């Protein structure tokens, strides 16, 4: 079983819609959770991080964490074509960062 | 700009040659991680340093790979006797403790 699972997509949403990206993790002891955006040919760029159960909002982005269900999600409101990228979920267990394979998002103008 | 720089950006070499990559994090980054990423996959952990100490190394990492961080600042990753399967993007990330990591632009390695 992989440490971090993501639906690879592709996920397509129309411009202005809400994009919902999901991630599950296997280790209940995981303590920190991150979302990175990666454009094709570029390195990952940090978007959000969350440590406690509940929601955390930053501009158009909301991260949601449910440790009981071992589930973390990212919502992107008012999606823009520039949001088209691969979104990587990362989970810290011990001192290691485990990354999912990423979900490809396309925002259609 | 994350402040993490990697050199070179691209490296093309023949199979069997040795290659070395460099990563320069910012001074506040007491932790430094190396990852490998291939197309369609997430970054795969290779090794990490806490200051100058190499604390963990992936079981997937063969003995052809070695990394150093001699003074707790910059780090180097060397691959000896390169193979076709080593072709990938090699990413370096810096951070403090379990705080978010910030990636450099990566070094793309192509093995001919």
Can you tell me about this structure?
The complex is a heterodimer of chains A (109) and B (112). Chain A is an all-beta fold and 109 residues long. In chain A, 0% of the residues lie in helices and 58% in strands. In chain A, strands 2, 4, 5, 9, 10 and 11 form a six-stranded mixed sheet that branches. Chain A is globular and about 40 Å long. By secondary structure, chain B is mostly beta strands. Chain B is built from no helices and eleven strands. Chain B has strands spanning 5-7, 10-13, 19-24, 31-37, 44-50, 53-57, 65-68, 75-79, 88-95, 102-103, 107-111. In chain B, strand 9 and strand 10 (102-103) form a beta hairpin. Chain B starts with a strand and ends with a strand.
Any key phrases for this structure?
heterodimer; A: mainly beta; 6-stranded mixed β-sheet; 5-stranded antiparallel β-sheet; 11 strands; 0% helix; B: mainly beta; 7-stranded mixed β-sheet; 4-stranded antiparallel β-sheet; globular
């Amino acid at each position: 079983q992989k440490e971090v699972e993501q639906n690879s997509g592709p996920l397509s949403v129309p411009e202005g819609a809400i994009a919902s990206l999901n991630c599950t993790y296997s280790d209940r002891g995981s303590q920190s959770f991150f979302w990175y955006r990666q454009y094709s040919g570029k390195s990952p760029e940090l978007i959000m991080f969350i440590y406690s159960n509940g929601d955390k909002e930053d501009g158009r982005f909301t991260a949601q964490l449910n440790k009981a269900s071992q589930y973390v999600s990212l919502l992107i409101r008012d999606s823009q074509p520039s949001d088209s990228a691969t979104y990587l979920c990362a989970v810290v267990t011990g001192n290691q960062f485990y990354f999912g394979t990423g979900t490809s998002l396309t925002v259609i103008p | 700009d994350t402040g993490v720089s990697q050199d070179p950006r691209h490296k093309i070499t023949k199979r069997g040659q040795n290659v070395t990559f460099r990563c320069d994090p910012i001074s506040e980054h007491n932790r430094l991680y190396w990852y490998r990423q291939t197309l369609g996959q997430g970054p795969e952990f290779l090794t990490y340093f806490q200051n100058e100490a190499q604390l963990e190394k992936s079981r997937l990492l063969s003995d052809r790979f070695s990394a150093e961080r001699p003074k707790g600042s910059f780090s180097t990753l060397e691959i000896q006797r390169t193979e076709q399967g080593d072709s990938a993007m090699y990413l370096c990330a810096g951070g403090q403790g379990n705080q978010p990591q910030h990636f450099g632009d990566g070094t793309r390695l192509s093995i001919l």
